């Protein structure tokens, strides 16, 4: 009696499954016959790298889409001259304003890192403070740091920064100040921060001059040289750092959600 009941249940279940499969097949065929669905349209949009990524040095970085994310792999090395390459290296230049260099050299460090961000980053409901270590990857391949060194202000380390606002110590080569190797009081792309938003030089391409509507993070929404659509991006804030006569790249806080750079 019990066995019979079980068998009966099983055959009902089999019948139900059969009808479901037929229905699913029917629905699948119907949508195939239809026009482009929303999902397909969305896939096309996220299937293209943002034009700004073309500015990144392809010798130092490898940038590609992975689903709805963008993966940025970098050697961590700057593609330009600095005394931190060390005497004898093709990209070595004698220090000019770095009066007290740290003893470390770029060839001695493995600064390779990977950052994965959304291909369509969104502003977060609340801001996030930056922390020590890399907060972004620049178009040169080298890391972007904030205005802190160790757990203190940058003041003591300023004497070790090269002409491009970068140094080593005690991590990979990285910028704290406006990277004059390729951006000096202009609207050039500096790089991408870990929340997926791009950061530009002190001027904005949308007006050709210093933006006047920046938020506390140095960000605003406008067109750029890389998009006709209004989109959020950061700028190097036009505030001289300390007595250096130079400009901090980014202090924060992040307006999006930061991702790990490692
Ligand atoms: Zn530093
Ligand atoms: Zn702008």
Give an overview in words:
The chain is of the alpha+beta class and 262 residues long. The protein is built from two helices and 15 strands. The protein has helices at 2-33, 38-45; strands at residues 61-66, 69-74, 113-118, 136-138, 143-144, 148-149, 152-153, 166-167, 174-175, 189-193, 198-200, 219-224, 227-235, 240-241, 246-247. The strands form four sheets. The chain has an eight-stranded mixed beta sheet with strand order 8-9-5-4-10-11-13-12, with no helix packed on it. The chain has a three-stranded antiparallel beta sheet with strand order 1-2-3, with no helix packed on it. Strand 6 (148-149) and strand 7 (152-153) form a beta hairpin. The longest helix is centred in the first third of the chain and has 32 residues, at 2-33. It is globular. The structure holds zinc ion (2 copies). One zinc ion binds next to strand 12 and strand 13.
Structural class: alpha+beta
Order of helices and strands: HHEEEEEEEEEEEEEEE
Largest sheet: 8 strands, mixed
Total of domains: 2
How many helical elements? 2
Task: Report the radius of gyration as a whole number of Å.
Answer: 25 Å
- Give the termini distance in whole angstroms: 64 Å
Helical content stands at 10-25%
Mean pLDDT: 85
Strand order of the largest sheet: 8-9-5-4-10-11-13-12
Hey, roughly how much beta strand do the residues contain? 15-25%
Low-confidence regions? 1-45
**Shape type:** globular
Provide the list of bound ligands, each named once: zinc ion
């Amino acid at each position: 009696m019990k066995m019979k009941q079980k068998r009966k249940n099983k055959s009902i279940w089999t019948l139900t499954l059969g009808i479901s499969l037929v229905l699913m097949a029917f629905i699948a065929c119907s949508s195939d016959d239809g026009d482009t669905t929303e999902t397909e349209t969305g896939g096309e949009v996220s299937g293209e790298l943002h034009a700004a990524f073309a500015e990144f040095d392809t010798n130092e970085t490898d940038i590609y889409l992975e689903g709805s994310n963008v993966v940025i792999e970098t050697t961590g090395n700057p593609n330009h001259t600095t005394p931190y390459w060390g005497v004898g290296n093709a990209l070595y230049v004698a220090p000019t304003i770095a009066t007290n260099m740290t003893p470390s050299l770029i060839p001695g460090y493995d600064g390779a890192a990977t950052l994965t961000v959304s291909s369509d980053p969104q502003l977060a409901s609340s801001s996030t403070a930056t922390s020590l270590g890399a907060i972004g990857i620049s178009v040169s391949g080298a890391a972007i740091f904030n205005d802190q060194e160790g757990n203190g202000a940058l003041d003591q380390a300023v004497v070790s920064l090269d002409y491009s606002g970068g140094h080593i110590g005690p991590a990979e080569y990285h910028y704290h100040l406006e990277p004059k190797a390729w951006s000096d009081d202009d609207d050039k792309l500096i790089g991408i921060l870990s929340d997926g938003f791009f950061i530009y030089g002190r001027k904005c391409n949308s007006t050709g001059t210093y933006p006047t509507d920046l938020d506390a993070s140095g960000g605003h929404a406008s067109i750029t040289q890389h998009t006709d659509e209004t989109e959020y991006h950061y700028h190097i804030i036009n505030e001289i750092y300390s007595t250096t006569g130079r400009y901090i790249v980014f202090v924060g806080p992040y307006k999006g959600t930061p991702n790990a750079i490692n």
